[in-house]
Design a protein that fits this description.
alpha/beta, Rossmann fold, six-stranded mixed β-sheet
Length: about 280
Amino acid sequence: MYIQVKNLNYTYSKDFPNQTKALDDVSFGIEKNSILGVAGHTGSGKSTLLQMLNGLLRPDDGEIFIGEDCITEKDFPLVNIRKKVGLVFQYPEYQLFEETVRKDVIYGPKNLGIEDEKELEEIARDAISKVGLDYEMIKDRSPFELSGGQKRRVAIAGVIAMKPEVLILDEPTAGLDPESRHELINMIQNIQKNENIILIFVSHNMNDIAKLADKMIVLDRGKIAMEGTPREVFEKKDELNSIGLGVPKVTEIMHRISEEIEGVKTDVLTLDEALEEIARVLND
């Protein structure tokens, strides 16, 4: 495993009457060049986990290894974590602050010590192009004048400009219409594939997890309730429902069909798989 999370524990307001256990003995691993989906209801520990992986929070105990580096060591330099792990918040306007899109995208690389203007120009052009925006048209615009979808893309560009080994996205498609969601998912897939990075994303949208993730974990009250491939996890429909989550829409439809027609497989994740299974049953 390239990323190893070992026995993470974290409590908010520790030793106070209102203390809350956010992570409870959380352990999992992620392979190189893979995509991990993280699901869980509000308050399950998802955001806390993301902030641990990016070094924004330190665990009460437990360890996180990225390659050979233990980023949770007390004296591990935060700048080295930022080089390895890039985090895009759910609300991109929280991390956009410069006068222009170009300045915002090169802010991170400049902080890493890159000063040559030609190199910075190429970094900005490359990152902005990778998120599907026209560099010449957008580089001098204020990021606060952009649409919500454009802000999200610029925020992602600012992170990938730093060439991280791990890209973390918190609810990347939240609030987008179906067409924008589809475009963003395809863009994320292309970035992960072309940059050969580990992608970790949190989502309430089970369709997104089914389409993107190689592996998924489900958090419930700070613990890992389920872990496996999306196909394996979404087979546990009743367990997911019991903790306030569901399955992809097409999987739900196949479960309903199986109640009426014996022998219908329910471990389907896409519309194409559903059509193939229905055709098989009809032919039989």
